[in-house]
Predict the structure.
Amino acid sequence: ADFASLLQALNEFTPDVVHFSGHGGPAGILLEQPAMGDAGGTLVTFGILARAIKATNKPPQLVVLNACETAEGARDLLAAVPVVIAMIEPIDDEAAYEFSKAFYAALCSGQTIEGSKEQACAGLQLFDEDAALLPEVLCRLDANPSEMTLVRKPV
């Protein structure tokens, strides 16, 4: 995705969750360049990403940054969203996939954000014990990821 398609998706779908899986670091995330054949990508800083998300009528409740070393810079996103999950160190592609698979299985079954992260880390521990320590939940003072659910189970 490039920045324009990210904005379009935020506006068109008003998602509760924005998930990024790709290259990142303490400064931001790397999105594709809109120009054909440009493989370098565009660094979108967390400040710019927060500004774009905050400018929507209904910002997401959660941003998941399944990318290397994003936890430090991701704190900037808390100006726009109540909860962010980011990685404290590099994560390889297979571990990122395993985390996502287990996290969304739990979240979609009605578990809390924190519980979903913990279930995903338990599963990740079977795959790679060190990788299970990488995901970090960041939240604003007005948010409690241990109580926040994004999917309601039918009664």
